[in-house]
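Entry 0007
Protein: Magnesium citrate secondary transporter
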Amino acid sequence: MKSLQHPLFIICILLFCLNRALEQAQLYVWPLYAYLDDLLCLPLTLGLILTVQRVYFQNQTIVIPVRHIVFAVAAFSVCFELLLPLYKPLYTADVLDVMAYTLGAFIFHQLMNKPLRIPAAVE
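Output (structure tokens):
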């Protein structure tokens, strides 16, 4: 569960909540309104997936392989920027959303997707 205590993960949650609060108050700040959720979604989603894997396998040194991160970017892009706009007129495809997913995944990989240090055993 230490993955959920990563400072960047906590910052992402706080930024997401702040953005939602602004939207609830009908304060739409561009570009936050347009792209912040897209930027944060992969660090949050992949951070949760990483935590589940570490708990399930009881291994705090697990990291998500780059190919899985790339797949996540592709999956989010296809689902939310290609398929959803085709079937729901309320949604629009935006290449900048794909760029935000990619940047979020890069931030996750560079800053969060690291093995946790295991304290040395005390004898």
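Curator remark: The chain has a mean pLDDT of 92. The chain is about 70% helix and 0% strand.
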